[in-house]
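Both lines are quoted verbatim for reference:

——
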Amino acid sequence: MVTVIKILCRLFSALPLGGALRLGRGLGWLFGNVFRYHRSDASEALGVAFPEMSAVEKQAILNRMYKGFGMNLAELLRLNSMKAEDLMSRVEGRGLENLVKALEGGKGVIAVTAHIGNYDLLAMACAAFGHPITIISKVIKNEKLNEFWQELRARFGIEILPPKNSYRECRQALKRNRMLGFILDQNMIAKEGIFVDFFGKSACTTPGLAFLAAQAQCPIIPAFMIRKPGGRHEIIMFEAIEPPDNRDADEIRRVTQECTKVIEDVIRRYPDQWTWIHRRWRTKPKDNRPGRDGRTGIEDPAGPESG
């Protein structure tokens, strides 16, 4: 598997950027229209979020989404031969002053993001711009492939933590005044999540981000990587969200909702750049209450439901 990936890396790196992206779009089209990978799930989710949208509009958005997948893959395969300055030349930053200001407090920053645009490039671009980042990442089952992927990220200055039992390491990263990347747009199982509003429907969401911010008393910066024409990208960083005043259930829910609302607003603006294949509303609320003390899931603060 790793040998195949390395061959693909050389192939995509040998192509001009425009050619690599065209090939990626073609692969994405095949993925979405021939293999129809999670196409029905994506269509259903899009209908939940935008019930007024016509079938033609939905199909157009999904086609662009799958082509975006292909371009994401093409860009990631080219990273093996890319230097940080090459990446920086294709990325613009908007709102980076919000991050700089937040880091001045010396307590670290939690960067909340979502599966929007080429989200894998977000951490690498932040590091390339001089803002070291720690991320929580799933382990790929194929050991050699996992090593290859982790080494590639580390080459760009990214510190990687496992998704399980990493709470203490997250706290240590914040104490070192680092930025901690946190994805907040995936479904949680009921015993590990709390329900917040997402596109007008209850979505089971990890309370870990808010709980961690409350304990560290560090600001939260919403950060996203948006794809632009011509193989370019834009990092958008919004003004800081203040951490919860305490770790009470109501405060944890309030900040989790505030972060989720920012994600929703960005998706509404760029609906073809979000990953609609995730079954975001899969977990159904019974009584719409958090766990016994409002702190469910804190042992694994980042852990979205896999699959």
Q: What stands out?
A: The first helix runs from residue 2 to 14. Confidence is low (pLDDT under 50) at residues 288-307. Residues 88-307 form one domain. The chain has two domains: 1-81, 88-307.
